[in-house]
Specification:
Helices cover about 20% and strands about 25% of the residues. The protein has 6 helices and 10 strands, in the order αββββββααβαβαββα. It has a 10-stranded mixed beta sheet. The two termini are about 20 Å apart.
Length: about 230
């Protein structure tokens, strides 16, 4: 329920480091073919027997594909998603969408009836394409993926570390920031590459999270910029 209780900007300090994102227990459901998701631009979609988890590939306009995992999406295939909020999860440089499955985050969101979907960013995990630099990065791939599932509002974005290359652009985008109803930043990278004054114009409520033992120094850099959020 944290999304409903967060103030517009909240900072949380944690005592664990980035390695604690991986839980030793692998959590997943047995996967089988039926029921099938009928969508011409989504392939190899597999839904668990209980209908509470899904994975597959989204085909982009440029021929690349993005891998995703989900434990329920509002209005698509899960009948037990009561909340209107859809949680979109990105990942850090050393991780992938599988991280959110392994540590039980997707299942936890489903338990509280939040729609959720985690993506492998381009060039990471099971997604094709090249890994972006700050100069080459854009959110076109992310917008395309969201449109395939008709996700255009009530989105809460979770962006740790490297995923700031996309998440921050989304928050600062004049058009697509309207999709967001909230964001949880976990020491996102590249904050210092943006004009600091832009952060004061962001309208998306944000929950700022970082680890006290984060050895990357990203928490210090990101907080200097994110503290400008209104």
């Amino acid at each position: 329920h944290a999304f409903n209780s967060c103030k517009p900007v909240t900072t949380l300090r944690t005592s664990f480091n980035r390695s604690n994102l991986i839980h030793p227990r692998f959590m997943s459901s047995t996967v089988m073919e039926p029921p099938k998701l009928e969508h011409p631009e989504i392939s190899n979609a597999k839904i668990s027997k209980d209908g509470d988890s899904m994975q597959g590939y989204i085909h982009l306009n440029d021929g690349e594909h993005i891998y995703f995992q989900s434990s329920g999406l509002h209005g698509l295939y899960a009948h037990n998603i009561a909340k209107k909020t859809q949680v979109v999860l990105l990942h850090g440089k050393k991780y992938s969408s599988q991280t959110w499955n392994q540590n039980g985050t997707l299942q936890h969101l489903l338990r509280y009836q939040y729609g959720n979907i985690a993506f492998d960013m381009p060039g990471y995990g099971n997604s094709s394409g090249k890994r972006d630099t700050f100069e080459s990065a854009n959110i076109d791939w992310l917008v395309q993926c969201l449109h395939k599932f008709n996700i255009t509002d009530n989105v809460v974005l979770i962006m740790p570390s490297m995923s700031g290359i996309y998440g921050l652009r989304w928050m600062l985008d004049a058009k697509y920031a309207s999709y967001l109803s909230g964001a949880m930043t976990i020491a996102p990278a590249f904050c210092d590459q943006f004009d600091a004054n832009l952060f004061s114009k962001v309208l998306t409520p944000a929950c700022i999270v970082y680890g006290e033992k984060d050895e990357t120094g990203l928490h210090e850099t990101s907080n200097a910029c994110l503290s400008r959020l209104p």
